Amino acid sequence: MPELPEMETYQTLLGSLIGGLKISDVEIGREKSINVPVDTFTKQVSNQAIKTITRRAKYLIFQLQDGKCLLLHLMLGGWMFFGKEEDKPDRTIQVKLSFGEQHLYYIGLRLGYLHLLSPEEVQEEFKKLGPEVLDADFTLDAFLQIMQKRKGTIKTTLINQEVLAGIGNGYSDEILWHSEIRPDTKINDLDVQQLTRLYHSIQFILKKGIEQGGYMENPLYKGDGKTGGYQFYVYDREGKECSRCHASIIKSEISSRKTFFCPNCQQ
């Protein structure tokens, strides 16, 4: 599932590719991917320019010139491609927005969606989200205050979007590896030093993920050299060598989520 770094990469790249451009045509391949009737969606979105593209947690918000918004959540397996018809992937397209001869294809939206909403409805969707962990006002003190109120395992807490926005299964394992904390550790058992280390690891790993274009396998456009440059330390590397202590990475399950960690250097 795309997480904060992947969506931030999409936001940056799409801003330069389609920011300010007018949507010349709309095609819906799967009605369940949108929230209004196809005719309504097509009529209200066609001939609208993309004013801005912003990110909140794992969402992208495409603001249209009339003030309406397209709210995108890719969920599990969703991705996008921008380009000409002859360059599009050989995959089922759920939604297609055209910008003249170039098109933005939304692919794999079996669980994901592109909803047409007012700004107020978008804010309502975000009501329960936790803070943005890369915002300037998300300080160490703010993080420690949040953790003081939480119980349960640290892995489950990191991926709870109502606690912290944008961290998912993959990067939670990366963050915990970097901070040398076992994912099944109870929050109550973590001291201030460990929590401080964890805070700095959140900053380091997510910023590195953004700098390297996230971990998405599929390029956003033909010749895209940015997307997918991030290489995991532990996630999905069961049986491979830990780059820090050379022990074998193991796979476990926490709250029905596959979890990867080093049993030697994560204590």
UniProtKB/TrEMBL annotation:
Its cofactor is Zn(2+). SUPFAM superfamilies: Glucocorticoid receptor-like (DNA-binding domain), N-terminal domain of MutM-like DNA repair proteins, S13-like H2TH domain. Coiled coil: none annotated. GO terms for biological process: base-excision repair. Its EC number is 3.2.2.23, 4.2.99.18. The keyword Hydrolase applies. GO terms for molecular function: 8-oxo-7,8-dihydroguanine DNA N-glycosylase activity; class I DNA-(apurinic or apyrimidinic site) endonuclease activity; damaged DNA binding; double-stranded DNA binding; zinc ion binding. Residues 233-267 form the FPG-type domain. The keyword Zinc applies. It holds the Pfam family zf-FPG_IleRS. SMART domains: Fapy_DNA_glyco, H2TH. Keywords: DNA damage, DNA repair, DNA-binding, Glycosidase, Hydrolase, Lyase, Metal-binding, Multifunctional enzyme, Zinc, Zinc-finger. Residues 2-112 form the Formamidopyrimidine-DNA glycosylase catalytic domain. It catalyses: 2'-deoxyribonucleotide-(2'-deoxyribose 5'-phosphate)-2'-deoxyribonucleotide-DNA = a 3'-end 2'-deoxyribonucleotide-(2,3-dehydro-2,3-deoxyribose 5'-phosphate)-DNA + a 5'-end 5'-phospho-2'-deoxyribonucleoside-DNA + H(+); Hydrolysis of DNA containing ring-opened 7-methylguanine residues, releasing 2,6-diamino-4-hydroxy-5-(N-methyl)formamidopyrimidine. Belongs to the FPG family. Monomer. This is Formamidopyrimidine-DNA glycosylase. It comes from Mesobacillus boroniphilus.
